[in-house]
Amino acid sequence: MGDRRRIVAGNWKMHGSLASARELAAALAGASHEAAGGLPEVIIFPPYPHLDAVRRVLDDAQSAAGIAVQLGAQDVSGHEQGAHTGQVSAGMLDDCGCSHVLVGHSERRSAFGESDELVARKFRRAADHGLIPVLCVGETLPEREAGQTGAVVLKQLGSVMKRCGAGAFERAVLAYEPVWAIGTGLSATPEQAQEVHALLRGEIARSNAKIAAGLRILYGGSVNGANAAPLFAQPDIDGGLVGGASLDAKDFLRIITAV
Ligand code: PGA
Questions:
Q1: Could you report the per-residue pLDDT of 98-145, keeping only the tens digit for each?
Q2: Most distant pair of Cα atoms in the chain: their distance
Q3: pTM of the full predicted structure?
Q4: Is 50 a catalytic residue?
Q5: Which CATH number is associated with domain 91-217?
Q6: How many whole angstroms from 202 Cα to the centroid of ligand 1?
Q7: DSSP per position, 86-147
């Protein structure tokens, strides 16, 4: 607790156009910020085809002393390179100026059948290329109702720890995103989220207490300007992974300043 710098990340999913992506990036990077000292790290995750253009917008804004916004991608291939039509490698994301990448977002796990094993390979691939993986874990509503929340998130975390070791979390971010809270307007309560965050941190602490103490664990699932502050006030919640509310510069800035 205490000296972990907070993170507010915006997952744009498959929204917008090239023009709107550039506009949104410019609005964020150019926003005035009196609270400069207390600002969290800000990362945005635009769709693949917009990454390069957004990076240019952010580079231009950097010299104009706006908010420092980092760039991430929403997914990465588990392969290094080769005959994998439609996939994008970690090296390519690095070339585009990405510093971060989401791995194991629930929409990838459910819509594309991504297994814990594949997610672990993606995590590894990203880390090998110097990208910071943002590993997403979370339970469905039936799993929560069956009392399986802890088992589900520990299994998802466990497959990455098995492949990469706890040491890999020295340069990674974890995101707890209950599936039932994503895009539903029904956020987890601060207490519900805190309980899972503490469980995840405790699991990593069993292997490496120092890495666990420094690890940023984000909450995601219907975060907005109104619920961000009480969520982020929890001892093990180090910021948010924001979907819908990251698509509007004003809404997203409200969350950034709520930290
Ligand atoms: P949401 O999405 O904020 O729209 O619920 C969060 C996410 O899927 O990362």
A1: 999 999 999 999 999 999 999 999 999 999 999 999 999 999 999 999
A2: 52
A3: 0.96
A4: no
A5: 3.20.20.70
A6: 25
A7: T---HHHHHHTT--EEEES-HHHHHHS---HHHHHHHHHHHHHTT-EEEEEE---HHHHHTT
